[in-house]
Amino acid sequence: MIEIKTSTLSDGEFNRGVFAKQDIKKGTLLHEAPVIPYPNKEHEHIEKTVLADYAFEYGINHTAILLGYGMLFNHSYTPNATYKINFDNHTFDFYAYTDIQAGEEILINYNGDVDNQELLWFDREGENE
């Protein structure tokens, strides 16, 4: 249903994204990404690496690195997908927020809420220059 392809939205060395291989209906479960959680106090070590840009909040006291395709969804303030944390299964479950056409890149709002328009760190860079 989904695949990894080159994205024009992603900067940097890897420029990958998640794309629909077929038409996908709103509400469809797209992917269950297993997590590797760690205590927030350990995040200072992750911040020294490229993984810091890919970490997700995982409850109040933990942060998580997502496996599978989880770390490859790119950001949009008008996403066509969303995710829910499934603490029982230790996964982030990604769902189609809108109907998605075959070939379309699947995008989530990194703020965690599809309607949250707060600028993210990469959009705030250079604001005060």
UniProtKB/TrEMBL annotation:
Metal-binding among keywords: no
Pfam families: SET
Record bears the keyword Membrane: no
Alphabetical GO biological process terms: methylation
Top-level taxon in the UniProt lineage: Bacteria
UniProt xrefs under InterPro entries: SET7_MeTrfase, SET_dom, SET_dom_sf, SET_domain_protein
MF terms in GO: histone H3K37 methyltransferase activity
Keywords: Methyltransferase, Plasmid, Transferase
PANTHER family for this protein: SET DOMAIN-CONTAINING PROTEIN 5
Protein name in the entry: SET domain-containing protein-lysine N-methyltransferase
